[in-house]
Structures are given as structure tokens and as C-alpha cells.
Amino acid sequence: MKRVTGIGGIFFKAQDADRMRAWYKTHLGIDVQPWGGAAFSWTDDAGKPTGGTTIWSISGPGEDPPPASSAPFTINYRVADVEGLVKVLREEGCNVVGEVQDSEYGKFGWVLDPEGNKVELWQPPPGQ
């Protein structure tokens, strides 16, 4: 079974999210949008778009905190079969959090790594 195929997004918490967003926009040139993050479009070696994005986002205290983890970040990994992978992770004794959720953005599953960091598994919707 193929497991992780790429990174779908990086999400982290900050004590002062507006200040952090402004710093990243000013000093690193990240095009922070009003929703609190940016979308990086994928390209091939020649710079031609390949049809995917990686999301980068900062949230403040009380704004959509990562459940079941005290870590200030969540990395979202792209996978081909989230339900199959979650099943295998459970069989391997991993700490799977909750059940797979299906939404318009795809299917999501979660597992905690050995240090309690939340790992998000994302299966994009068909055609993405």
C-alpha cells in the first residue's frame, strides 16, 4: 500500500496570529489571504502548473485548534487511500484519532505520532 504521496498543508498556532501573518507577508513575501493563509500552487521542474496546492495557515488562540494534541502545528499529508491507511495504522497499533471524515475538500483522518503530534491524512476529492 502506498502511504504518503506529498504534503497537503502546514497549519500552526500563534499567540498573535495577525502579527505572525503580517511578519511572514512582509519579510518572506508569503501572499497571506484574508482567511489567514496562503495556497502554494504546484509546478513541474519547468515551472508549469501541475494541478495541486499546498496550504499554509496560521491560527490564533481559540481558532480551530488541532484536537487531541498540544503541539502548535499540524502537518497535512496527502494520501491515495485514507480509509485503507487508517485501517493499517490501527492494525499496526498507532494512536488513530476519531473516524475518517468525508467533506467537499476530500477525506480526512488523523493519527498521533509517538510524541503526541497530530498528523492529518488527506485524500483529495476525485479529479484533484
UniProtKB/TrEMBL annotation:
CDD domains: VOC. Residues 6-124 form the VOC domain. Signal peptide: none annotated. InterPro entries: Anthracycline_SecMetBiosynth, Glyas_Bleomycin-R_OHBP_Dase, Glyas_Fos-R_dOase_dom, VOC_core. Residues 51-70 are annotated as: Disordered. Gene3D superfamilies: 2,3-Dihydroxybiphenyl 1,2-Dioxygenase, domain 1 (3.10.180.10). It comes from the Bacteria. This is VOC family protein. It comes from Massilia agri.
